[in-house]
Amino acid sequence: MTKGYLDKESAKSFGATTSVIQAQSYTIEEKFYDDDRIGGRRDRYSGSMQEFREKDGYHPDFKLDYVDEKGRMMNQKEAFRYLSHKFHGKGPGKNKIDKRMKKMEQES
């Protein structure tokens, strides 16, 4: 079995000789230079090259509250479940709705 660039018709013309030389002088290193053109797209995923310097005395103070459409407070799990149902366009099952209604009745 033979692999690579093979010339079945060995013509002694100048054009055939240059094509053989071009095929033999091709190096794998030339492939890597093509990546430099494309590398600009990957820079956005690498992040900043500078180190992040925190400001002295900076202490963020925030409170993340989850509220449903009726104004009732929700915990993190309930908020995620609500967001998931809203995104996928499917509501919770009948038993979960009944369970939530009982919980709301007990709270009020």
Automatic annotation (TrEMBL):
<feature type="compositionally biased region" description="Basic residues">
    <location>
        <begin position="85"/>
        <end position="94"/>
    </location>
</feature>
<feature type="compositionally biased region" description="Basic and acidic residues">
    <location>
        <begin position="95"/>
        <end position="108"/>
    </location>
</feature>
<dbReference type="GO" id="GO:0000481">
    <property type="term" value="P:maturation of 5S rRNA"/>
</dbReference>
<keyword id="KW-0539">Nucleus</keyword>
<dbReference type="InterPro" id="IPR005011">
    <property type="entry name" value="SNU66/SART1"/>
</dbReference>
<comment type="similarity">
    <text>Belongs to the SNU66/SART1 family.</text>
</comment>
<dbReference type="GO" id="GO:0046540">
    <property type="term" value="C:U4/U6 x U5 tri-snRNP complex"/>
</dbReference>
<feature type="region of interest" description="Disordered">
    <location>
        <begin position="85"/>
        <end position="108"/>
    </location>
</feature>
<protein>
    <submittedName>
        <fullName>Uncharacterized protein</fullName>
    </submittedName>
</protein>
<dbReference type="GO" id="GO:0045292">
    <property type="term" value="P:mRNA cis splicing, via spliceosome"/>
</dbReference>
<dbReference type="Pfam" id="PF03343">
    <property type="entry name" value="SART-1"/>
</dbReference>
